[in-house]
Amino acid sequence: MIYKDRTKPIPERVEHLLGLMTLEEKAGQLVQPFGWQTYEHINGEIRLTEAFKKQIEQAGVGSLYGVLRADPWTGVTLESGLSPREGAEAVNTIQRYAIENSRLGIPILIGEECSHGHMAIGATVFPVPLSLGSTWNVDLYREMCRAVGRETRSQGGAVTYSPVLDVVRDPRWGRTEECFGEDAHLISEMAVASVEGLQGEKLDGEDSVAATLKHFVGYGSSEGGRNAGPVHMGRRELLEVDLLPFRKAVEAGAASIMPAYNEIDGVPCTTNQELLEDVLRNEWGFDGMVITDCGAIDMLASGHDVAADGRDAAVQAIRAGIDMEMSGEMFGKHLVEAVHAGQLEEEVLDRAVRRVLTLKFRLGLFESPYADPDRAEQVIGSAEHVELARKLAGEGIVLLKNEGVLPLAPGAGKIAVIGPNADVGYNQLGDYTSPQPRDKVTTVLGGIRTKLADTPEQVLYAPGCRIKGDSREGFEFALSTAEQADTVVMVVGGSSARDFGEGSIDLKTGASKVTGNSESDMDCGEGIDRLSLSLSGVQLELIQEIHKLGKPLVVVYINGRPIAEPWIDEHADAILEAWYPGQEGGHAVADILFGDVNPSGRLTVSIPKHVGQLPVYYNGKRSRGKRYLEADSQPRYPFGFGLSYTEFTYDKLSVSSDSIHKNEEVQVRVEVKNTGQRAGAEVVQLYVTDVASTVTRPGKELKGFRKVFLQPGEAQTVEFTVGPEQLQYIGANYEPVVEPGEFQVHVGKHVNELLSANFIVRED
């Protein structure tokens, strides 16, 4: 059989297999049921359901979504879920049945969520992408993606539905935490690193998984920050901003892509043929697989209302360029009937099947469909990956304010750790996280206690309140605890933890109270969009009451979107933005609080003074205006901002030529020196301004960055290359253009603190 002959070229194998398939078998390859519904896990034994067996025997299944996923949505818990070994064994059971009990023995594509770690019990939980972006450390992130690929593939997962490449325009959006930030250039750098890390040198490698770029496109610019809302965006902005990270990732070899739920100018992305065929495949040369988001085809007939019914929706989607339906039923129900009824040409169906089969061959699934349970047990949650998670969390924490109280001295007296996020591990993991054993997650309280293990009496704790709700029951105990301390560390923020059934928190002792009516503190995550960027519940009131005690006050935010609280900005002695720092977040926060790690995180989203300033992203057009009646339009903390325990100075900015041809390059150099007393890392940022252009431009655009580590007194010359790629924009005819004229380059600490130099670009 040619398709089973590994010595034959993949296109030849695909065409041979396609020619053997019935219409029903072809449609079956485009179907992706929920993976956790294919088996039962009883007393350590994996049993396939009769419904799944029947589906395999009738027409086959192309893919499964979330075989290894566990969370309240799936109904899979720590108790009923799969260990690393059991997960690999479950995948093997599924694959073996599919191969041995279907006519052609086609292996199943196992797809898993991995935006900040393999979403399985026992897998390493890294910081969320918003934190990863704040590291500005592309190499470290690439290393993390290699680890994620290793853990996922070891259990049999072959495709990951990451990275998320959406450009955040309104941080009220609940999925802000899943994104790298508001700048397309920075996202592009992370996008390329993600593809390189996840996919490795070859897709059929034992540590490689296919990356799925999402959400294509404009998803981060929805109306009002509401999830999947309409996007009002011109073609030029779409080409120049939102499509840029996707194009860069496609050029890096991404194997899969996922259209967004939203519509752009009235056309849902799921059926946008211009995007899926004209741009993605014809212009960019993408040759991978396109898979919908969950339920996106249903939305065409019930939500967008551009389809009369399910069959119409399925036909529209596959015609537009969709190859597989994620976890829906439209393709399975309607495609075969549509072909028989003359509503869909079989060659359109064949086109989609061909792409699915090609990805399976590229992943080596026909040769190696099974996982190695021993290896899964060895690599998942390994000590090496845990250490990497701690390092990433430390580099992603941003020091927003410090009035000399940080770092804390170990012998500086008693520390009261107070707040609803001080000792609730799930609250620091973020959305798209499986439940993890409590001893695997180090909270901020746990991290501080570890630092001061020799003097445990030095650490006091009170939760004070919940994330949400108006109960002040815990205030009295929190205040009495703070009164005994020399320094107060308030750990507040938000939660993207779905209700894991853990019960409520005893606000007097911090102990877990298991009840039948557990409350959810979730105020961020997918589908959780907000009117405000303030702290939920009575958290601010708790901080204000404790501030009255006159103790040094350190605020640590654990959250998934920027927080705008002017009172805290004014009154706290120090503020750390830790985002959702993952399972090692407590250690990472403690490392920074006590000065073992010098903070080097920098903001990738601008933080406003007030929600009414939105949109406040740094690279808006120069015509956007300067102020409102009540205040100016500048953010509280600008893009690229972040403090350190040392000082960095910039000097000797130079441009290699004051005049270049539009096809030439200049070298931009600057000297950066650590003038403080501690070793530390500085993120050197390069921005470009087109002084006058035919089409309006932002005032500044990030075009390069370097993270440099310097010892006290050490200086380093940092160099950037600025050429056509950094100078071009989408011109009047919607094509990239470098216009002659004056340009400025800016280099410095953040977008509002820069050295500048000018040069001229010539036409001839």
Give the gist of this structure.
The protein has 764 residues and is α/β, with parallel strands linked by helices.
Low-pLDDT sequence parts: 501-517
Largest sheet: 6 strands, parallel
Strand content: 15-25%
The strand order across the widest sheet is 4-5-6-7-8-11
Query: What spatial form do the alpha-carbon principal axes imply?
Result: globular
Question: Overview of this structure, please?
Answer:
The protein contains 21 helices and 30 strands. About 2% of the residues have low confidence. The radius of gyration is 26 Å and the shape is globular. The chain is an alpha/beta fold and 764 residues long.
Layout of secondary structure:
Layout: H1 10-20, H2 23-28, E1 31-32, E2 39-42, E3 45-48, H3 50-58, E4 63-65, H4 84-100, E5 109-112, H5 129-135, H6 138-154, E6 159-160, H7 184-199, E7 210-216, H8 235-251, E8 256-259, E9 263-264, E10 267-268, H9 273-283, E11 289-290, H10 296-301, H11 310-320, E12 325-326, H12 330-340, H13 346-362, H14 373-379, H15 383-396, E13 398-402, E14 415-418, H16 444-451, E15 459-462, H17 475-483, E16 487-493, E17 504-505, E18 512-513, H18 539-547, E19 553-558, H19 566-571, E20 574-577, H20 585-593, E21 648-655, E22 659-661, E23 666-674, E24 680-690, E25 701-710, E26 715-722, H21 724-727, E27 729-730, E28 736-737, E29 741-750, E30 753-762
Helix pairs in contact: 1-13, 4-14, 5-15, 6-7, 6-14, 6-15, 7-8, 11-12, 15-20, 16-20
Pfam families: Fn3-like (PF14310), Glyco_hydro_3 (PF00933), Glyco_hydro_3_C (PF01915)
Domain Fibronectin type III-like: 682-751
GO molecular function: beta-glucosidase activity
